[in-house]
Specification:
By secondary structure, the protein is α/β, with parallel strands linked by helices. The chain has 20 helices and nine strands.
């Protein structure tokens, strides 16, 4: 790498860290909470999510997508952007302040455009553990990838060599979240339990029996209870200190009980056969053999639809507020904020929703999730920013119960009132 490229890489890294600090740091470094916030930004500034953990089968009905819909979403692992494209919207713009997620989202777009067929695409992102992926990257993807993303994937890092080599080692075992899940598996095995056992269940009754026998008892262990009550333990889930506080409030201080209940919902409330979130949690990868427990963008029946729609997708490196500030009026129909607002203070919330109002089309919809059950907007937004929106709190629990990832406390939908 030339000195000029190294300088640019360093400048981009510093800029990214500054964006992240702005989003997370609220306390002085010398305080305990300030130290925790800085620990979080240190670990979160790299590759975090190889897969997104918001269920598109809940998002899509709430968004009411048609061929005129312009969607703005946070990119994260890029899965939601690809999943939304199966509904043929007018456009999907994925925005993220993390350069690793930007590079992953753009990699998915380039792979869909330039890999020769469905099988090579599924091998790359469905299995993500085959040397042929690297050959296909070099032959088909790299020559068509933007410079920013190509530099990211071809940078040499320990222990992979080039970063792209993670796709021959199972990309889903890497990133902050992948390593967190691996740590959970190791802890379970220390107690003689194997999370993969639940994948052997033939029906939901068996799922319940296996969960009660293998996973549920772990949350009664003193060591596990201690870990659950430490904010640092959940950094691997992408949960900053402020969001941990929301979780702890919902848990009434018993984080082990809350985390157990959410894992129980994932393991027992939905058929394991097609719940790809459960497969990621318990198997550290998708169902590559039967291809049933996979996201909709990896299903063969959606491949040609995606290929036809892929030019409608793009990935932008920015904060969501800065991106929306650059958009014109009546330009966005659906906003997908994931759980990002759990990170924000009231000033940041109001800056964001002012930008939403300036860019929103008629009857625009905003969907997002929260670690706790309550929407932060009720108390956080000014009347000027809150009053233009319709919100039905009675829908929060039913919609959240449908989310197969089961890691959130609330799913919220706001609809712009008719003028």
């Amino acid at each position: 790498m030339s000195a000029q490229m190294k300088l640019k890489d360093n400048q981009e890294t510093i800029a990214n860290k500054n964006l992240l600090k702005k989003a997370v740091h609220e306390n002085k470094a010398i305080t305990k909470r300030g130290f925790q916030e800085r620990m979080f930004t240190a670990v979160f500034s790299g590759f975090v999510y190889p897969q997104i953990w918001e269920d598109p089968e809940v998002d899509i009905p709430a968004m009411e997508i048609d061929n005129t819909t312009h969607i703005m979403t946070i990119c994260s692992g890029g899965c939601n952007m690809m999943n939304y494209l199966t509904e043929s919207p007018a456009s999907v713009t994925a925005v993220d302040l993390n350069p690793a997620h930007v590079a992953l989202g753009r990699l998915k777009i380039a792979a869909l455009k330039h890999l020769p067929d469905y099988e090579s695409f599924f091998l790359f992102f469905g299995c993500a553990d085959d040397p042929r992926n690297i050959e296909n990257y070099d032959k088909y993807i790299a020559p068509n990838l933007d410079k920013f993303s190509r530099n990211y994937w071809e940078k040499k890092v320990v222990p992979h060599g080039r970063r792209i080599n993670m796709f021959k080692k199972n990309i889903y075992k890497f990133g902050l979240l992948g390593k967190f899940i691996g740590t959970v598996h190791r802890i379970a095995k220390l107690y003689g339990k194997d999370p993969r056992d639940i994948l052997k269940a033939q029906n939901m009754d068996e799922q319940r029996v296996i969960f009660d026998k293998t996973l549920a008892p772990l949350f009664d262990k003193k060591f596990v209870k201690m870990l659950c009550n430490k904010p640092e333990s959940l950094y691997g889930l992408g949960i900053p200190p402020a969001q941990f506080d929301d979780l702890s409030e919902s848990a009434k201080g018993d984080m082990a009980k809350l985390l157990k209940s959410r894992l129980e919902r994932m393991a027992c409330q939905f058929p394991i056969r097609d719940n790809y979130f459960a497969w990621q949690a318990f198997n550290r990868g998708y169902d590559c053999k039967h291809r049933i427990a996979v996201p909709r963008y990896l299903r063969e029946e959606n491949y040609e639809i995606l290929r036809a729609n892929i030019e409608r997708a793009k990935v932008v490196h920015s904060t969501i507020t800065e991106y929306l500030d650059g958009q014109g009026p009546n330009s966005v129909d659906c906003y997908v904020f994931l759980d990002a607002q759990d990170w924000m203070n009231d000033n940041q919330l109001n800056e964001l929703w002012s930008a939403v109002l300036r860019s929103a089309n008629d009857r625009a919809r905003v969907i997002f999730r929260t670690a706790g059950e309550e929407s932060p907007l009720t108390k956080g937004l000014t009347e000027e920013n809150l009053s233009p929106w319709e919100y039905d709190p009675s829908l929060v629990a039913p919609r959240n119960e449908q989310d197969r990832s089961s890691i959130y406390g609330g799913f919220h939908t706001y609809i712009l009132k008719a003028l």
